[in-house]
Amino acid sequence: MTAAELLKSRPYAPSAPEKRAMLLDGLNELTVHHRRNCVPYDRIVKALFNGADTVDELSALPWLPVRLFKRTDLVSVPHEKIVKTLVSSGTTGQLPSRIFLDRETASSQARILATIAGDFLGKARMPMLIIDDASFLRDRTRFNARAAAILGFSSLGRDHLYLLDEQLLPDWNALSSYLEAHRDTPILLFGFTFIVWQNFVEAALAEERSFHFPPGSALIHGGGWKRLEDRKVSEESFKAALAERFGIERVHNYYGMVEQVGSIYFECEHGRLHTPAYSDILIRDPVSLEPLGVGEAGLVQVLSVLPRSYPGHSLLTEDLGTIVGEDDCPCGRNGKSFRIHGRLRNVEMRGCSDTRPVPAV
Amino acid sequence: MIQTLFAVEPSVQWPELLASLGGDGRPGPFDPPALNFVGALSGRLLASHAGREFPELAALAHWFRPTRLARVRHELLGASSAYRLRPRGSVFIIAPANVDVLFIYGWLLSLLSGNATVVRVSQKPSPPRDAFLQLVRSLAEDAAHKEALRSSAIISYPHDHSATATLSKWCDLRLVWGGDATVSTIRTVPLKPTAVEAAFADRFSMAAFDAARILESSDRELADLARRFANDTMWLGQQACSSPRILFWIGSETQCDAAKDRFWRQFAIASQRFDDEPAAMMSRVSDLFTMAAEGVIDGVSSPLAQLPARARAVGPEDAVRDLHSGFGLFVEYQIDSITQVVPFLSDKDQTLVVHGIAPGAVAELVEQLPNRSLDRIVGVGQATDFDITWDGTNLLDLLTRRIIAPSRQAA
To answer: Which has the closest alpha carbon to A322: A299, A352, A343, A306?
Structure first.
């Protein structure tokens, strides 16, 4: 099976042995493609991976550290083929990642997102509430990872309402009318974890407001737990507050990154993140980089057969995670299931300088 | 928000603090109260728990030991000359954040010179700094030391604070340690017209080893050499400006390969006592990828995650300067003679650590140094040593003024 065929399979259908063989072929093919079409990538594979072209196991695939995309522009298609440049949000003072997509890669990304989300949410497009502001739609200079994620996910629903204004304050009246207008259909909500908490849940608490979303309404949220952890908000209390304040019972976290299109991992009803057929993860020891087994915490390496326009098919992230199991989640989905523990701690900066932290992506 | 980390009267608020540091009737350079205070501080540090816990404080205490102070005083004041020495006046020191205790050298030299001194330290927490200031506070309880400390304040505030402007108008000398961006920003803040400034920006350092000399050495000699080079580089995670990041091997390819093999084997043993951290490893590994992508290196001589990491250089060294973030990464070049480092040198370069290079060859190199490149050529183990001469400038010359006047003995 080729990468193209792999893209057609159902996201959580293939069993481990089937998936491994398909992925390996697809990823090996991408290594060859990128070496041929991206000089810096070819130099890396020669200098750091003994010029490996095709390998026998996923853990032997050449990989790139995600931070590299902040420092070097990596492209595997002629410049005029680029239709979209994704830019990571990045903290102040740090360089953003730049990811270059051609038409093919961009459209397969959109298709895959729809397929994966469909598995969790059903095929029908729901009315969609976006817990963010819409100003990025007017101001394309701010088209960063956050905007790209909102735009990408917004294709999953219809009749969009952007709940927040530019100060990220909710418009409760607009929400009331929206719920009134969509009284009988489940509503899809999307937002970044911290914004959902601070500008939706906490805002409603502070103003003593509560709403009743139609049964079957679902929230998809992502972006990391770090800032909620700092506030001692657990996943349980996050979910409990959404159920209590809004009657939203279905909450799916997702994990993904701008640097690897197609790597989109949804959390199932059992609180595990799932790898779809087109993608996989490996865990590596944070000191030796040797591959680790199920249950061992380490750095997350993500693999995806989607990135053709730039060499992002095998990336070492600076996130820490643990594989929980493979093909054995009680939710019935095949593929690896895993948890994310957060980001690697920053190290101090170079030179006789004062305040520049090492960018940790 | 100004935070006063040390002042004799901690209750005095900013900006009244500045007036409390005094202006008239300054002591002369190396007057007994200042000498006694610094001597006592050195002794207390060496005997203290802090000195044992933080080797950088022990090194500092050793540097400021009374015998050295007496020698420095003698060199400074003893020579009969056509001028008299007085303190510069008011000194504003901006300290770097990456080398926690570097500010102490500048502060103590300024205090010894008799100046009113305000040091701005980074807002980042620093356990060795806290331990040091605790000791200073306890010495300040002694009336004799209190007098010596009356003209000093150690403060911290955010970078954009107006205090930088106030202090810049107040001081007669501004000493800035910081990254290139910090130095450039501070330079835009005006000084009073009579004031002077010295800024110590980001620098880069290298080492050059003679392969034949390494091959002649016994394992034991190499073990000692490796231990000293590990101190030069692995201490502070290769973050000091003077820690070498590029290593030149001098000799034929065969000689260099054999020498590298022997040296790095010993270095691996010597560097075992330095811990690696996942984030440091990721930084080092990302540097390797960036250098490979840019064609600066064409291979690694160690597994990717290993500490230290070694890379074979094929590309220009200016890219290495830009892309190298330290944390135990060595980029290796092979050359035929020491003077072949000359084309590699730039204004950014501060220290060249050398081993096995004849004094005559070093002298020849010094004569060929381009523009303002290289301020130090030192032996292995001395890279991070403090010296009154910093980046080519004598700090005591900055911290004092020469008064042209007849001497007391003059008729």
So the answer is: A299
Give the global pTM: 0.89
Burial (Cβ within 10 Å: 0-12, 13-18, ≥19) of residue B28: middle
At the second CATH level, the architecture of B204-388 is 3-Layer(aba) Sandwich (3.40)
Tell which CATH classification among 3.40.50.620, 3.40.50.12780, 3.10.20.30, 3.55.50.30 matches the domain A3-343: 3.40.50.12780
Answer whether B106's CB lies under 8 Å from B24's CB. no
Structural fold of domain B3-202+391-404: Aldehyde Dehydrogenase; Chain A, domain 1 (3.40.605)
Residue B208 near residue B352 (C-beta atoms within 8 A): yes
Residues of chain B with CATH 3.40.309.10: 204-388
ipTM associated with this complex: 0.90
Interface membership of B304 toward A (CB under 8 Å): yes
Q: Which residues in chain B are closer than 8 Å to A38, comparing Cβ atoms?
A: none
How far is Cα A276 from Cα A263, in angstroms, rounded to an integer?
8
Interface list for B 11-40 with A (CB within 8 A): none
Range(s) of chain B covered by CATH 3.40.605.10: 3-202+391-404
Q: Which residues pair with A339 in a beta bridge?
A: A322
How wide is the angle at C-alpha A160 spanned by C-alphas A159 and A161, nearest 5°? 120
Digit-coded pLDDT (tens) for B258-285? 999 999 999 999 999 888 889 999 999 9
Which residues does chain B have with pLDDT short of 70?
79-81, 407-411
Nearest CB to B289 within list A46, A48, A318: A48
A–B CB contacts, 8 A cutoff, strictly below: 134
> Cβ distance B31 to B183 under 8 Å?
no
